[in-house]
Amino acid sequence: MSPHKSSGIAYNAPDSTHGELPDRIYAKLRDLIIRGRLEPGSRAVEADLARRFGVSRTPVREALAQLARERYVVPAGNGRRTEFRVASLDPAEVVELWGVIGALEGYAIQSVSRLSVENRKALVAELKNVNDALEVESNARPRDNDAWGELMSAFHERFMSYCAGPYLNTLYESVRHHVQRYEWAFGTITDAPLAPSIAEHRRIIATVRAGDGSGARRAVEEHWANGLKRTRTLVARLTATQSRGARLTLNK
Questions:
Q1: 244 and 137 Cβ atoms separated by less than 8 Å
Q2: What is the pTM of this model?
């Protein structure tokens, strides 16, 4: 998987209809927030963003309203006009998000026992390819955090695409993007432990290969439980350091 770079901010879509443009601005802003291009606590100023994207303020206003409903941005300021800032990272949110996504993925992956042999083999091959690429990327110096974050997401999205139905996928997508935001922050810390996740992925792959639905569910739920401990610790460290005005060594 080739990394998708979001650092090129120029965005101009004159051919878009009014209805499409706010959705596209929303998706772009959400991606910038997830990847830390718009940093936690920074102000999301409507006029500045409109200039940045080369659009009028109206689609930006609509996009910000949607992002506020989904808690990517929060109200800021006491003026008559609503202003926003990017929501801060919060170690307490990691507990809820990791619990929810672990439950959703665990519920979904147990259906691997009902997949055909052909589909199960195909899924195993896809998971192994992604995890191998993830290991290579994790050992790279400097590490490409975009590539790493996308591969981490891809591993989970692969088995969800085989195992989850439409209703579960809708719930999953609403949570997954918030989780990605924390994963990207985790990956920017140079001494973040990445090898445990890769090893846990291998255990998940082994249960899928065996068609062991209950084992796959346990492996996924344990993966998220272990990830919770790792992520909460480092996010607490990151937010505490930032609140003191200092900087961690980041791979951005």
A1: no
A2: 0.84
Residues 44 and 164 in one domain: no
Determine the Cα angle at 163 with ends 148 and 97, to 5°.
55
Other Cβ atoms within 10 Å of 159 Cβ, number: 24
pLDDT (tens digit per residue) in 144-182? 889 989 999 999 999 999 999 999 999 999 999 999 999
Tens digits of residue pLDDT in 23-45: 999 999 999 999 999 999 999 99
Identify the pLDDT of residue 118: 98
Q: Is there a single domain that holds both residue 100 and residue 149?
A: yes
Which of 19, 67, 76 is CA-nearest to residue 45? 76
**46 is in which domain, residue-wise?**
20-86
More confident residue, 65 or 83: 65
CA–CA separation, 212 and 227 (whole Å)? 22
Phi, psi of 194 (to 5 degrees): -95, -30
Q: How many domains does the chain have?
A: 2
HSE-up (13 A, CA, CB side) for residue 215:
14
Among 84-98, 109-123, 227-241, name the one with the lowest average pLDDT: 227-241
Same domain, 80 and 163: no
* Same domain flag for 64 and 119: no
On whether residue 109 sits in a domain, the answer given is: yes
Whether 9 is covered by a domain: the verdict is no
Q: Max Cα separation, the chain? A: 61
